[in-house]
Amino acid sequence: MKFTLSWLKDHLDTEASLDEIVETLTMIGLEVESVDDKSVLKPFTIAKVLNAQKHPDADKLQVLTVDIGSGTPLQVVCGAPNARAGLIGAFAAPGTYVPGIDVTLSVGKIRGVESFGMMCSERELQLSDEHNGIIELPEDAPVGTSYAEWAKLDDPVIEIGLTPNRPDCTSVYGVARDLAAAGLGTLKDGAVAPIAGQGACPVEVTIEAPELCPGFGLRLVRGVKNGPSPKWLQQRLIAIGLRPINALVDITNYMTFDRGRPLHVFDAAKVAGNLVIRRAKEGEKILALDGREYTLSGENCVIADDRGVESIAGVMGGEHSGCDENTTDVLIESALWAPLNIARTGRELGIITDARYRFERGVDPEFALPGLELATKMVLDLCGGEATEIRAVGFKPTEQKVVTFPVSEVKRLTGIEVSTEESLAILTRLGFKPQGQGDVVDVKVPTWRPDVDGKADLVEEVMRIHGVNKIEPQPMISKDSVSSRILTTAQIRTRLARRALAVRGMMEAVTWSFISEAQARPFAENRPLIKLANPIAADLSTMRPSLLPGLIAAAQRNADRGFRDVALCEVAAAYEGDRPQDQRRVASGVRRGTARPGGQGRNWAGNVASVDVFVAKEDALAVLEACGVAADKLQIEAGGPSWYHPGRSGTIKMGPKNILATFGEFHPRLLEAMDVSGPLCGFEVFIDAVPEPKARATRTKPRLDLSPFQAVTRDFAFVVSRDVPAGTLVRAALAADKKLITGVNVFDVFEGQSLGEDKKSVAIEVTVQPVDKTLTDEDFEALSKRIVDNVTKQTGGVLRA
Amino acid sequence: MNDLDQLEKQLLDEIAAAGEEAALEAVRVAALGKKGSVSEKLKLLGSMSPEERQTMGPVINGLKTRVTDALAARRAELRDAAIAARLERERVDVTLPVARSAAERGRIHPISQVIDEIAAIFGDLGFEIAEGPDIETDYYNFTALNFPEGHPAREMHDTFFLEPDANGERKLLRTHTSPVQIRTMETKKPPIRIVIPGKTYRADSDATHTPMFHQLEGLVIDKTANVANMKWVLTEFCKAYFEVSSLNMRFRPSFFPFTEPSLEVDIQCDRSRPGEVRFGEGNDWMEILGCGMVHPNVLRHGGLDPDEYQGFAWGMGIDRIAMLKYGMPDLRAFFDADVRWLDHYGFRPLDLPTLFGGLSS
After folding, report:
1. Which entry of A325, A653, B42, B207 is 20 to 30 Å from A309 by CA?
2. Can you give the residue ranges of the Aminoacyl-transfer RNA synthetases class-II family profile domain (chain B) (predicted)?
């Protein structure tokens, strides 16, 4: 919403400075987005051409002698056809920035003749598109003074950003009312006197869609002369960024901004028969005033005559019945439209107009007919003619809302004490009508405030006008104890997971929650994809079923930039469905090239090996341990989901069903489908699958019993089938004596022809911790036998000779 | 010079000349061994007369002691030399590069770090962290938050919708974290003090808007919370977060469907240095958040009586306040996973934001 200072002062009697007005607007909720104080026009002065002679070397140029009021006439070369001795115009001296041509002038030589400035056209000053000649001012224009000041072009332009709840401030009058309420002057009387019409409006109006049109006013003015509108009106429209068209159209635009009352004018000669307000027929077309053709549907409301659609109701008029310089009889329309329908029509047709902007927010229903009167007055004043009576159809008296307002609500909600008198005075200045006295009053809401429904709305009115700045910050009731833990277990695990991965050298990324359908598909397994109906791009169209595709793609992007060894992780949501419980909390990561925790790349002490399934396993276990899971409570099974290498992937479970994590190198077909290259490994840990820790009655750790006897180790090597998991062998060794054996570590795995087909050798180091006595050789022999027997029993392996 | 003097000189010369332990040992054996030259002299004592023995005993024993001492001294010298030689042999080039600690190489994304900073501050103020799903229903995202059907404010959200499900219901990606307000009110009795960090989505894309971004929602509901309290909480938060001792903030009336009264908050700053914003100084106002008293209709949708309970809520962009504090120029880079960006703007994993240790190092 834009307006000029002088325009505002048409409605507001104020001594306040521009700065005060701007500051106040922002602080009462009409945020000032920009102020153009027109200082760019200040340097242009009124100058008189004393003498004009043909340029010696150019037919179309003249050499002028110009009096700029300084006593020393200047020589100026000018190409304007209307430049002549005696003309008074606008002069720009060297050094002046001329906005219309975006040039800062200097002393120039034009075809050999020096020019000390420029006589300007309106276009050069961005006053209009006029460029057929230089500006011509009346003879009494004072030479040597500021042109902008004399012509009142220095009127500052203020632009405010309106929130959608304030349709009343889509008018200069409404802005003035708010400022007056805030104490910045007095609101001038905006009452409108009716115009007595001669005879009935000959065009009849039928409302066939009353749900879309709660009222329609129409009046004919005969015998108008529709030329350009007066200068002051054009200047105001130009100042706020509108293009003057002709007086009738300019009047409608002026009313739209001055009073927030959009109007439409039809050239009566082009309207065939009577007007019907109805829903458009499916596929009905109209060529609108913007020169575009729109195809309408039954959801759009139109104004039609015998010929067809003449106007898209409340949004944009039709080209056919528009007013031009030949218009002599004009029909002025002032109507009410259903806001939601206007919003929908505007949105569907892609039309943004000042009328739509106001109708979809809600215009003052009580001003529809006064607005028509005021517009009629302007038409009569500016274009002459004779008005008929108004034809008003469908209007019903507006039901005025009444809010029961305990004045103490102001203090309750804002914390500031505002006296009852002041609260009610503020509301009254804004047009509310408090009725009765005492602590609770009934407040009648003005018809221009559709946003006000309840007492909280009234509190806001009082607060913003009284001044938000006056509310002193007040500490909340302070704590009476030390804060306890504020994060949930899941939140704590999320934080620990990302830091556990970062300390393993991974970089935490945040990638899009939506990915391409092609990337999502392989990771969705048999579940349906969660697709957006209106994605902004095809590669951001499907909710990710896993964090891996995004991370794999990110690793490849980095590789393509020359960073081949990257370790990326992310702890975020993956979406298995569209319900809240389908949103999984996942810690995931990928490593590429040689990005291992201990370092990467080539090294003088030995090159780092490519990443593999075991690094991914370390990562997954690191997350699980950070989440408080004891690694010895976990089962690790070979194989995982289809996107992994079937022989180089694993699944970590707790119990038979609960899958906590998967890890591995990726399936070559996946890498090919994603067009990425390896070496690459990755993992996913389902943080939300990790059981809640058991509640503990005490924080005391279990008693620690330290054995006084030396711990010893014994090595064993077994030859087993190649497909026997090392995990089974380790478990068998551990189970041989749960009391004495405290650890089993695999320190060598070897396959070779010497062992036989499909055999491997697994060497373990068993840590034995005697508890109550030093073990004898016989004790060790017995223990060793138990270990060997148990391993043989569980794995079919034999002790290697 | 008698023969004992001569022997001593000869032995001491030999000890001094011994270049290694084996040679020295040979000297020792030749002198002090069973048949060593000094041992032979000592044996002579037995065949001497008591008077002779009285004289010669100390002389010969003196010789033995001096030779023994000389041997020990020389042995120590040789050992020192051997160690010195070994150390020299073992010398390496310590300027050779070593791997950087994984904990120094890893990075925490600025969004995670800032969320941890926020949690530290609001935890101190007695708030809990709440969360909710990214995929929401129209009810939680709009209707319950007092967005009337078809209202222009709804359109301003540029909502991403899912394709309709079998029942024709069209779910959406939450456009703000505010649905969690309702979800919290439904499950928790006041007093409520929560902050809600999370992902939000709008169909918008340029240098300061991405289709996915992060918001921080705050909600306080009890029987007294008012605008004055809200001003205090938000001012204290901004001071703590930006780590400045004073800060000018400007609260100005605004509009949000789910708050009434509604306010927008600007923060005074200095933007005269390119690529840097300083708070607590300067002449610019920068919008940083929106807030207001929870709308009575929202309280009702949460199952609370607006005449008994009241409270305030606010929302701010986490990515935005991260950019303001740490100076990233382009929001889109947050989600690109470029390791150069992560390395530069990310945080070391052991830099945990706390109030006792400072939010940032």
Report:
1. A325
2. 126-349
For residue A273, the Cα-to-chain-centroid distance in whole angstroms is 47
Closest to A257 in 3D by CA, of A4, A597, A618: A4
Q: How far apart are CA A505 and CA A596, in angstroms?
A: 8
Would you call B216 an interface residue with chain A, using a CB distance cutoff of 8 Å?
no
- Per the annotation, does B217 bind a ligand? no
Partners of residue B165 in chain A, C-beta under 8 Å: 578
pLDDT at A41: 84
What is A402-466's CATH number, 3.40.630.30, 3.30.56.10, 3.40.50.300, 1.10.3720.10?
3.30.56.10
Using CB atoms, which residue from A165, A502, A530 is nearest to B349?
Answer: A502
Give the number of C-alpha atoms closer than 13 A to the C-alpha of residue B337, restricted to the C-beta side: 28
Q: Do A460 and B229 touch (CB under 8 A)?
A: no
Question: Do the chains contact at A561 and B338, CB–CB below 8 Å?
Answer: yes
**pTM of the predicted model, to two decimals?**
0.87
Give CA torsion, residues A113, A118, A124, A126, to 10 deg.
170
Chain A residues in contact with B310 (beta carbon < 8 A)? 412-413
pLDDT in tens, A208-258: 999 999 999 999 999 999 999 998 999 899 889 999 999 999 999 999 999
Q: Are A251 and A227 in contact (CB under 8 A)?
A: no
Superfamily of domain A712-799: Ferrodoxin-fold anticodon-binding domain (3.30.70.380)
What does the pLDDT look like over A387-436, one tens digit per residue? 999 999 999 998 889 999 999 999 999 999 999 999 999 999 999 999 98
Cβ <8 Å between A508 and B346: yes
CB atoms < 10 A from the CB of A57, how many?
10
Q: For A489-689, which CATH superfamily applies? A: Bira Bifunctional Protein; Domain 2 (3.30.930.10)
Cβ-in-10-Å burial (0-12, 13-18, 19+) of B2 comes to exposed
Mean per-residue pLDDT of chain B: 91
CA distances to A82, A588, A627 from A692, rounded to whole Å, are 89, 20, 10
In contact, A800 and A761? CB cutoff 8 Å: yes
Which residues of chain A neighbour B211 with C-beta distances below 8 Å?
A: 512, 514, 536, 540
What is residue A201's three-state secondary structure?
coil
DSSP state letter for A447: T
Q: Is residue B131 scored above 80 in pLDDT?
A: yes
On whether the CB atoms of residues A201 and A218 are closer than 8 A, the answer is: yes
Rounded Cα distance between A106 and A55, Å, is: 19
pLDDT of A164 reads 87
Q: What distance lies between CA A746 and its chain's CA centroid? A: 57
Residue A42: its pLDDT value, please? Answer: 83
